[in-house]
Design goal:
- It is a single chain.
- The chain has 376 residues and is mainly alpha-helical.
- A two-stranded antiparallel ribbon has the order 1-2.
- β1 and β2 form a beta hairpin.
- It starts with a helix and ends with a helix.
Length: 376
């Protein structure tokens, strides 16, 4: 890559698609399905393993450093949850790698001659020491490149100890097998990158393998996958809690609305019942008043009838008394006259008085009856 292309890539990575007002590059957004989400998170296997023996070629989705810069800027304000897509991508890739490893192991088991379990364990010990030496040598090179000479020397001391253990393990393994069988190349499959390792590989080759881009790239991918799993689990748990919280809030609001609606529905009933009670009390009071009025009218009517009857009786008594008094007065007068007159005249007068008294009583009786009828 030329210096100009490197400079352009650096600017894209720092400023995104909006640098220098270049609007032609803004036709596609980082959230588009055509953009590789693993590339945005800097863990796409096509980028990590580029230039190795297992180079996967160009990714089928869009890779652009400017889009990655846009995503990094936007992700500070909003969570797009692209980790889930990247995790699915890396899981699929690692699953394919593990299947290749199992197939390689099966092929080795079929091609190599069968050995006893004890010999296999001794050979496994030699392989373990080879891996340890290779990893230590890769670390020594890394520390030397960083300028840390003291740590590099300490790691080299550990390498020498591992080499001594390896020589002892090889001697034990050689003594447990015939010379012809020991000379055969024994291979082993690397559990990380599925590459083949030889039992008799020298330290240089082991250092090249364990410190090489292929092996370190697979380590990076596997570590990134574990990190994505952890991040996705945390975000899913957080989202579930937020969803549960929102659901509880909705349920609380619904309960509150239901309680309010019930209270609103109860109040009209109470008001109606109160109004009904008031109406009943009013009607009852009206009925009482009506009854009291009717009773008072009846009392007044009875009182009037009684007073009229009393007045009639009194008038009748008065008339009776007056008629009696008159009759008595007349009888007294007749007695006096009878004393003064002759017996014949007295007889005539007595007859006349009796006749008049009888007629007067009938007239008095008739007049009293007429007065009673008039009053009624």
């Amino acid at each position: 890559m030329s210096a100009q292309a490197q400079m352009r890539a650096m600017l894209d990575q720092l400023m995104g698609t909006s640098r220098d007002g270049d609007t032609t590059r803004q036709r596609i957004k980082f959230s588009d399905d055509r953009v590789c989400k693993s590339h945005l998170l800097n863990c796409c296997p096509h980028d990590v393993l580029s230039g190795t023996r297992m180079d996967l070629g160009e990714c089928l989705k869009v890779h652009d450093l400017a889009l990655r810069a846009d995503y990094e800027i936007a992700s500070k304000e909003q969570d797009f949850f692209f980790e889930l897509d990247a995790m699915d991508h890396l899981q699929s890739f690692i699953a394919d790698c593990d299947r290749r490893t199992e197939v390689a192991k099966k092929r080795l088991a079929e091609t190599q001659e069968e050995i006893s379990a004890e010999v296999a364990a001794k050979a496994e010990r030699v392989h373990e020491l080879n891996e340890e030496i290779g990893k230590l040598l890769a670390k020594v090179e890394q520390l030397g490149a960083e300028g840390n000479v003291e740590e590099s020397q300490k790691v080299m001391d550990e390498v020498e100890k591992a080499r001594a253990k390896k020589r002892e393990a090889e001697e034990v393994y050689r003594n447990s097998m015939p010379a012809s069988s020991f000379q055969q190349q024994k291979l082993r499959v690397c559990e990380v990158c599925s590459a083949y390792l030889g039992l008799h590989d020298n330290d240089r080759r082991l250092a090249d393998h364990f410190g090489g881009k292929l092996h370190l790239g697979f380590i990076e991918i596997r570590e990134k996958l574990e990190e994505l799993k952890r991040v996705v689990a945390e975000k899913q748990e957080k989202r579930n809690q937020e969803r549960l919280k929102r659901r509880e809030e909705r349920e609380r609001e619904e309960r509150e609305k239901l309680r309010r609606s019930r209270s609103h529905s109860k109040n009209p009933k109470r008001s109606r019942s109160r109004e009904h009670r008031r109406h009943r009390s009013r009607s009852m009071s009206r009925e009482r008043k009506r009854r009291t009025r009717s009773k008072s009218r009846e009392k007044r009517h009875r009182h009037r009838s009684r007073s009229s009857s009393r007045s009639r009786s009194r008038s009748h008594q008065r008339s009776g008394h007056s008629s009696r008094d008159r009759s008595r007065e007349r009888s007294r007068r007749r007695d006096r006259n009878s004393r003064d007159r002759s017996p014949r005249d007295r007889d005539r007068k007595d007859k006349k008085r009796s006749y008049e008294s009888a007629n007067g009583r009938s007239e008095d009786r008739r007049s009293s009856e007429e007065r009673e009828a008039g009053e009624i």
